[in-house]
């Protein structure tokens, strides 16, 4: 069954315009048709269309169930956006499909992209959530300065992917502790400046490597998030 998204469905009993159009115009669902709607907060509502309006379709609720994430911890990915925004959009889509709790675009001194449209990224995240049949929408932040990111999640395990051999790095897969709150920090295409990596390490964030291959920014972020889930599964 196709899943729709309406963050306030329980209060309004109405689908947003985009989802209304998809249901009524594209799928040609009429009065009495059944569908599933998630509020993005871990709940799925069973609904029946009462008024198939193409801009604000109204529904009746027939049931609700909790659908929490399959992972139990916070998985937060903080990435300096690439120059080409399509690579970041692809990354967000895949991260949401795999499963993360929060995505933070990070502003660094070497960032080639200093502005990002959060609304556009959030739309991609919503689409990926629905397509992968999840019911929890990850938090999508506005661009955040690196200094602010370093203050987040002080009690979590926090890792930074870093390329320079001058810094002693650990193997991520051997260092990661399964099912513990995790922050993964990935720098820009030119990596962090020496002053920045000094501040990152000074904040207690562990420098790691993701293997012998040098990875693109988005590939490193996706690898790390995937590794979390794989290692969690093997630890059960």
Descriptive notes:
With 236 residues, the protein is an alpha/beta fold. 33% of the residues lie in helices and 24% in strands. It contains 8 helices and 12 strands. The chain has helices at residues 9-12, 17-26, 85-98, 118-131, 146-149, 172-175, 194-202, 217-234; strands at 3-5, 34-38, 43-51, 58-66, 75-79, 102-107, 139-140, 144-145, 157-161, 170-171, 182-186, 206-209. The strands form 2 sheets. Strands 5, 6, 7, 8, 9, 10, 11 and 12 form an 8-stranded parallel beta sheet that branches. Strand 2 (34-38) and strand 3 (43-51) form a beta hairpin. Helix 3 runs parallel beside helix 4 (118-131) and helix 3 runs parallel beside helix 8. The mean pLDDT is 94.
Topology:
Elements: E1 3-5, H1 9-12, H2 17-26, E2 34-38, E3 43-51, E4 58-66, E5 75-79, H3 85-98, E6 102-107, H4 118-131, E7 139-140, E8 144-145, H5 146-149, E9 157-161, E10 170-171, H6 172-175, E11 182-186, H7 194-202, E12 206-209, H8 217-234
Number of E-type strands? 12
The count of helical stretches stands at: 8
Please estimate the helix content.
25-40%
C-alpha end-to-end distance:
30 Å
What integer is the average pLDDT? Answer: 94
Largest sheet: 8 strands, parallel
Rg (C-alpha, Å): 20 Å
Order of helices and strands: EHHEEEEHEHEEHEEHEHEH
Percent of residues in β-strands: 15-25%
Principal-axes shape call: elongated
Structural class: alpha/beta
- Stretches where pLDDT falls below 50 for ≥5 residues? none
